[in-house]
Amino acid sequence: MLNKLLVAVSIILNLVLTIHILYNNNSTTWNPTWTNRAAAEAEAAASVPCSGHGRAYVDGLGVLDSHKPPCECNNCYTGQDCSVLLKDCPVDADSGDPLFLEPFWMRKAEESAVVESGWHRMSYRYYKLGAFVSVELEMIIRELHSIMGNAVTDNRFIVFGTGATQLIAASVHALSQTNSSYPSRLVTSVPYYNMYKQQAEFFNSADLMFEGDASAWKQCDNITQVIEIVTSPNNPDGKLKCAVLDGPNVKTIHDCAYYWPYFSPIIQPVDEDLSLFSLSKTTGHAGSRFGWALVKDEAVYKKMNTYISLSTMGVSRDTQLHALQLLKVVIGDRGDEIFHFGYRTMKKRWEKLNKIMSMSTRFSLETIKPEYCNYFKKVRDFTPSYAWVKCERLEDTNCYEIFKAAKITGRGGEAFGSGRRFVRLSLIRSQDDFDQLIAMLKKFVSKEAVVVVESI
């Protein structure tokens, strides 16, 4: 009798233990252990309201002394909780920080969060492959372009870089002639992104010389060793661009950082030998410093990889993990939510800007004809990241200074090779920044009518 009882008890205990193991292995109520502190710190910082005009971060000033993360206020706001708006504060319309997407990611707090162990990817390389790149991240980038229809990735190598900035340098290095009697000439269309010129002049390589406007070389009979950078959509004016030069001695880099539905209709996939993209203008995470190049030629791919390897030993593994999680969120619904959110935001901003500028005879905006967008399946306007403004009055010879005097800090046209009659105004910063820009522009443009009346 006793033996039967012991057997029964043993069976019951085994069943209980089995159920317990199975339940714990499959339970959705799994309780974390070592992630509690990190999660609590992240949520504590994110919960600081800052009056809606700033943010608190886990690495904010004072946290090493166990202080609560302080508010870091948006431009023109101050006070411990960012509740004080400074009067007559200059508007920052210079920076290209894509903070217009911040509200989307705040809504996606749970899906986009990343927690990693203290021993995450301590090696220089990914162990099994001995490489500097995450295979999963490369796969998700290919899937993203397939969904968006904005770039061909078949038969392309992918190079990761510390933002598009490093990839520009790596591309130029890979395409430059080495050990040549004459340096390669770097050209691009005016107006051009000023980083191209700045990099070429800063590195001061014997193998490369910045030569400015590509159009100036179009009639040249003897084009040799030319590298043309095609920025499409263009920074600063938002236009879709094509290469100006061609021929056996011309090599082309296509900077497509802004070719996303927030800013431009997706007309056709980019199908070029070398094209560049960045996380900054894809998800808005400029601070993560991550970009990628799609490269057709294996020799160019290897040269770019060598440049990245020797300069930074690849891209931070933590950055690649962060980018992977963000892009998983993006493609989760085939980009529908983030790209509709971003496009609606930019569309509303352009509508407000156009309404104000239409009342001005002193300033004009670059206009671009609407195009059919293959992603949204409709004809739509361009909604560029920046407003490319021209000062029309003959006496307004320095547009940057004209706007600066009105407490609007943009970026002068000279930086883009276009002369002083132009200024670039950023439209992709935070909602506070945009609201301040609109308020100051209204005030500025309204003075035109007063000046006209007084001059009569």
TrEMBL record:
Using the record, list the residue span of the signal peptide; answer none if the entry has no such feature: 1-18
Q: Which SUPFAM superfamilies match?
A: PLP-dependent transferases
Stretches assigned to the Alliinase C-terminal domain: 91-445
| A matching Pfam family | Alliinase_C
Q: Which processes are annotated in GO (biological process)?
A: amino acid metabolic process
Residue intervals of the Alliinase EGF-like domain: 33-89
Cofactor(s) for this protein? Answer: pyridoxal 5'-phosphate
Keyword set, alphabetical order: Aminotransferase, Pyridoxal phosphate, Signal, Transferase
User: What Gene3D superfamilies does the record tag this protein with?
Assistant: Aspartate Aminotransferase, domain 1, EGF-like, alliinase, Type I PLP-dependent aspartate aminotransferase-like (Major domain)
InterPro entries assigned: Alliinase_C (IPR006948), Alliinase_N_sf (IPR037029), EGF_alliinase (IPR006947), Ethylene_sulfur-biosynth (IPR050478), PyrdxlP-dep_Trfase (IPR015424), PyrdxlP-dep_Trfase_major (IPR015421), PyrdxlP-dep_Trfase_small (IPR015422)
GO terms assigned for molecular function: carbon-sulfur lyase activity; transaminase activity
Q: Which family does it belong to?
A: Belongs to the alliinase family.
What this protein is called in its record is Alliinase C-terminal domain-containing protein
Annotated organism of origin: Capsella rubella
